[in-house]
């Protein structure tokens, strides 16, 4: 009985997925004004588009076969083509990808900036065994520099603050605080010092401060990506089922705290924070999209430096549209497309809370303020 239900459920999911996916492709070719004037991206390697290139770190992807399906070749994106931030920008109607902070210049920053940094985390020490990384605290400092430049471009503090309130912000952090910290006792003492529950609490307390700082810097429409089922990435494929289960459980402790945090943040005047449930978004059967390899990376991965990333210069699998993963950590463009589509337009009630990105970016004249329990006049009360 359960399995026939599963089958039906999967079939339904698949149909909706197809619709969202096709709909998304259509939207991409629509030209005109983007749905928000600006889009700022905070996060890790899932969104990094070149910020780590100039850093002294092994956590970079500016060499082949990364970028094999990207028009400019390897750019520092940790995938074969587009990452989720690129695809979200497309869905929002931008005609260019949001530039990396490392090289954004002049008026470009009016459209937003991407601060993402591979191996970075909520905690400043996360990822440091690989070299320099740009932690969320440093990404927020970079954002302050952007705001200063915007103040000159827009001609004033008040105008800039009003502008910043209209932007979309996405934040995806925390996965590396496990992969490149808590799950690496050989480099980091966190798992000796803290139980999984204590570590999750510490992590989300820090995240809460950082997200409040982002709000103070003018952000109102903020989408936070939850942590994923990390036990299922190819990196841990050779672990025994009990270890995989314990990884997933530990990570879920942190993920479970983000939704209540979103509720708390939405008590701030005008705040519209949403939670994107990565586990929910990964549910469903992607085989109708041609995806058939779920647990093996497409490229030949390095076993020495930055183990699990693609080994430089090796020829990857010939058909990148059949694999979920490009290397041992990072999804292929096709998988990123499915993720970004569902974050933009949820099709399971659990994908996004309380609304998805497409609702978040709608004008406040729609019913969105009711969802966040705010009146329209609250929305115009800044706190600057
Ligand atoms: C995320 O989605 C999964 C799968 O539907 C669900 O089990 C979990 O409770 C959700 N998490 C939150 C915090 O809503
Ligand atoms: C790649 O795989 C997809 C899905 O199986 C298939 O539709 C497509 O024709 C393949 N492309 C090439 C170049 O083999």
Automatic annotation (TrEMBL):
GO terms for biological process: lipid catabolic process. Belongs to the 'GDSL' lipolytic enzyme family. Pfam families: Lipase_GDSL (PF00657). This is Lipase. GO terms for molecular function: hydrolase activity, acting on ester bonds. One of its GO terms (cellular component) is extracellular region. It comes from Lithospermum erythrorhizon (Purple gromwell). InterPro entries: GDSL, GDSL_esterase/lipase, SGNH_hydro_sf, SGNH_plant_lipase-like. It comes from the Eukaryota. The keyword Cytoplasm does not apply. Keywords: Hydrolase, Lipid degradation, Lipid metabolism, Secreted, Signal. It is found in: Secreted. The keyword Transmembrane helix does not apply.
């Amino acid at each position: 009985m359960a399995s026939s239900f599963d089958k039906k459920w999967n079939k339904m999911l698949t149909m909706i997925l197809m619709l969202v996916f096709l709909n998304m492709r259509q939207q991409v070719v629509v030209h005109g004004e983007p749905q928000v004037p600006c889009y700022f991206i905070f996060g890790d390697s899932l969104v990094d588009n070149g910020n780590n290139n100039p850093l002294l770190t092994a956590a970079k992807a500016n060499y082949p076969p990364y970028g094999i399906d990207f028009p400019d070749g390897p750019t520092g994106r940790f995938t074969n083509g587009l990452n989720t931030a690129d695809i979200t920008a497309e869905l929002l109607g931008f005609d260019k990808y949001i530039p990396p902070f490392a090289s954004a210049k002049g008026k470009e920053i009016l459209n937003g900036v991407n601060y993402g940094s591979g191996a970075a985390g909520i905690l400043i020490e996360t990822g440091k065994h690989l070299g320099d990384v740009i932690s969320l605290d440093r990404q927020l400092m970079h954002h302050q520099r952007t705001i200063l430049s915007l103040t000159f471009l827009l001609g004033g503090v008040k105008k800039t603050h009003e502008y910043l309130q209209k932007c979309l912000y996405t934040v995806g952090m925390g996965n590396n605080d496990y992969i490149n910290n808590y799950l690496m006792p050989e480099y980091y003492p966190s798992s000796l010092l803290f139980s999984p529950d204590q570590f999750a609490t510490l992590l989300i307390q820090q995240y809460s401060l950082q997200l409040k700082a982002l709000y103070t810097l003018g952000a109102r429409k903020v989408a936070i990506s939850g942590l994923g089922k990390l036990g299922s990435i190819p990196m841990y494929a050779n672990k025994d089922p009990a270890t995989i289960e314990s990884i997933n459980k530990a990570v879920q402790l942190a993920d479970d705290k983000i939704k209540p945090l979103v509720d708390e943040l939405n008590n701030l005047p005008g705040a519209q924070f949403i939670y994107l449930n990565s586990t929910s978004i990964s549910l469903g059967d992607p085989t109708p999209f041609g995806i058939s390899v779920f647990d093996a990376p497409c490229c030949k991965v390095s076993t020495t430096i930055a183990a699990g990333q693609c080994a430089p210069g090796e020829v990857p699998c010939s058909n990148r549209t059949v694999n979920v993963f490009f290397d041992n950590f990072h999804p292929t463009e096709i998988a990123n497309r499915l993720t970004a589509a569902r974050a933009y337009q949820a099709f399971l009630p659990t994908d996004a809370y309380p609304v998805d990105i497409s609702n978040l970016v709608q004008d406040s004249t729609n019913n969105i303020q009711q969802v966040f329990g705010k009146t329209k006049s609250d929305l115009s009360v800044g706190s600057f």
